[in-house]
């Protein structure tokens, strides 16, 4: 996010997605919140109904007090006075009962709200994906979950407090106007004016509260960065510099807190105008009204009681609560709106253009992607170990760069991947091998040139069919908390156990699955005790068991030893279909039928020995590889 | 000054902005007095109205109200100033202290824990001054209200004091929370976060499989149970609320009945009854502030947690400037123990001649990284010493070290706002490398082609730089090369790059850095073969220190380089 000041740094391991923190339009927050509340109209009505009950004491208490004075104590009839006060108490019990029902009903509003927000955030995080960049770090996820809880708590708190305060204030005003109509002119206009003033103050409160939140986040981030990278700070002789950067953020934090307070202090004016001015006015005009016989002693007592125990404290608390909690709600919801996607995403993008409907996807339907009718009319379930007929992929004049001033990652690439091809992608690290793979699979939009899958442009292909036909295994394996079976059948839900176990055995993950307790064994979150290599093996078994006809291993075996890596690659060759391997070791290239060499200036395609003769870079890579792999006899003598 | 050390820290925190604290105290007194006088003024005004008196009493109500509001407004400002300056003082102190710690001490604290002390505990402890003022004011107002009731009619005070504990008891009998729902809620919401984190880590797979909605469903599976636990929490709170809601009315009815009887018997005026209602509400102020007492307890606990860090001694640090020399390193009897006392290095003696390149090899756990850290001055040995050009490292000025010894690591943390800042990180303004120097360091580290592909080259914010492990390593290497230090320590700093790049890097390190002493931890045969000397470590001891080809005849040495 630009304009958000200094970011001191970042660990190379934990990194964040680039285009994440876009400043959301204020409307986005409101839309998200309204969407999240849209399902709870009925509970809200129930809440409103009980609120009326809760408001009864507010409306009646002053009047009852006045009656106790007028008909009871002031008239010397103590018994009647006590009776009216007892009624005052009974009404208070009724109000408390209403408050109790309100609380019991809160869950029906607040919990669905939280559900909707969690869903929107989860979807948003997953839809946004990586944007081709780095993964969002755990801290970001943790912060999002915390934000959702804040919205839940604050909404609950507002419904409890602000709602009850509004009810109290309105009830008191209504009670007062009924008891002494003449006083309405001295009470209602200042109150309305005060509320207007408060509404006018709100935007600046929201702004300053937002500054506080940002300043807090920046300071925490700055501290986290230098504390995580303390070794590097020390090694760079930058202790003072690092401390200085954090202290600068702390100073900024202090300034924003004070700025917020000076905006908040203005809220007292609202209390003065709305809470105390009516009281003073009523007391000033009361003698005249009493003298004219238009008000009784009880009415004066009632009016003062409504103002001092109803309107004034309610307004004071309301201004406090709304000024902090509601402002916090707005700010937090805005942060959530930046990453949320409230409605389900359409993963079945309809092909645009006639060609899309024929060609590739049509050929897919013919090949029976999801169990078509066989010759005898019986449903033929595609055996997962025999993949779909792989699509033909061809690339023409493909060029891609990350920014207008940047060097292209890939320039004018031509490439054909006939069905059954086994291609290795080779090149120095950082050259853009993963970018090429993402372009080939339509995960990154093509800038210039075209990528055709089954003769159709990759952005016009039916997305669901494409994602089923193509399986990409990235370097970091996705292993989640659940059973081994769930993990393995991720890409082909419903695959039978025998096929899953066959794939497990093929890629050499048998011992891991056995250790985990078979398919019913469970995995901890984040893969728990599994090593990075073991996770990669499970990910390989999962894709092996899927129906994908084109399999891409994007350094997917980087944590395996060379022998295990070879076994995985051979398993995919035996499986059939097209195989593309982004090579982590050169041995992957030697096993491939053809090699695509990226060297920054251009790309070369050919067989291993051809490239060795044609490209000095490739020859260099091969030499470097050989010198570093001592012959086994030499070492293990 | 309080006797307890945590309390002493809180005391000093509260005194950070004495001016604001005193004004907070002042306006609190004004506010409390105005609040206590207000019900009486209202009562007099009511009496005046009923007796067809004049309106002067009404105006005094207005004056008191204005005073009260002004006091609250100024109080809020003073409170924020006190809390903000106290908090910031603690944060600055803690930050400087953390940054001055010895590496070894620093490792005792997890970064996340430190951040939470910096943000959470410092804020908790920083607001202690205004908190105490608030609590005191509430107490004074409550006591004042009881006195005011007694002045109206001493029976009122008696009834108030008797009815409050009874009402509290009534409200408090069910104050036990149903902890089951709370525990379930916390557990399920943790489960949800863990699932989301799983999915986020696998987002590339999910994206490639087009399985977003399915995985959203998987992540959200605990949601219904979570919502049920949440509803349970609200239901149990409802019971609490209903009892608490009866507290004030119960006391009010008791006191007002007493006052009403006073009115009937002519002892009290109608205005007095109105005043009694006002003082009952004020008298309950202290009860409303009851929960704030837990904040005070939390502030003390937070201060203790801050002290736990502030008590760790910082690096002593010598004051000697850089000695003349060309980077000769001598280790005399250097031993380092691990956290549980296990030896990591055992009496290592070593001389690295100026300008030499020494490769450090050995199996994992043999002490290579520890040795690199000791040579780089990152780790103080438990015994023995390290001399750089004849001067013990620990005697050198800590901020001058960066110019003498430069390090690169297997997993560097890149600090700095932009690419250029990250490479020049730690160089003060006077010695910051020129743009050309940065570019040539980047070229030597084989990272210039990566920078060329970035949207804004050297000025690209680090946030926007997608880095693989190998790229991060090369940025770290560029950072080490950019400062023209006498000694270069590379701790496995080229392990994640491909073979061809590594060959070029090794070439850069072995041949294009004449005159610099280099200590290179490595697993690779080629690097060891090109070094002037190989230091072979085994179990924290020096197993051999000789050129590569002299050691090669030993089978144990060759097995160090075996492919895993």
TrEMBL record, chain A:
Positions of the ABC transporter domain: 393-624
Principal location class: membrane
Keywords: ATP-binding, Membrane, Nucleotide-binding, Transmembrane, Transmembrane helix
ABC transmembrane type-1 domain span: 45-313
Places the protein is found: Cell membrane
An example Gene Ontology molecular-function term: ATP binding
Organism: Streptoalloteichus tenebrarius (strain ATCC 17920 / DSM 40477 / JCM 4838 / CBS 697.72 / NBRC 16177 / NCIMB 11028 / NRRL B-12390 / A12253. 1 / ISP 5477)
Ranges that cross the membrane: 44-69, 81-99, 162-180, 186-206, 269-290
Highest taxon in the source lineage: Bacteria
SUPFAM superfamilies registered for this protein in UniProt: ABC transporter transmembrane region, P-loop containing nucleoside triphosphate hydrolases
Protein name as it appears in the record: ATP-binding cassette, subfamily C
Membrane topology, as annotated: Multi-pass membrane protein
UniProtKB/TrEMBL annotation, chain B:
Protein name (record): ATP-binding cassette, subfamily B
A GO term for molecular function: ATP binding
Membrane topology: Multi-pass membrane protein
Transmembrane segments: 20-38, 50-71, 135-168, 240-261
Top-level division of the source organism's lineage: Bacteria
Pfam family, one: ABC_membrane
Naturally occurring in which organism (per UniProt): Streptoalloteichus tenebrarius (strain ATCC 17920 / DSM 40477 / JCM 4838 / CBS 697.72 / NBRC 16177 / NCIMB 11028 / NRRL B-12390 / A12253. 1 / ISP 5477)
ABC transmembrane type-1 domain residues: 28-288
Localization, UniProt: Cell membrane
PROSITE patterns: ABC_TM1F (PS50929), ABC_TRANSPORTER_1 (PS00211), ABC_TRANSPORTER_2 (PS50893)
Domain (ABC transporter): residue spans on this chain: 329-564
UniProtKB keywords: ATP-binding, Membrane, Nucleotide-binding, Transmembrane, Transmembrane helix
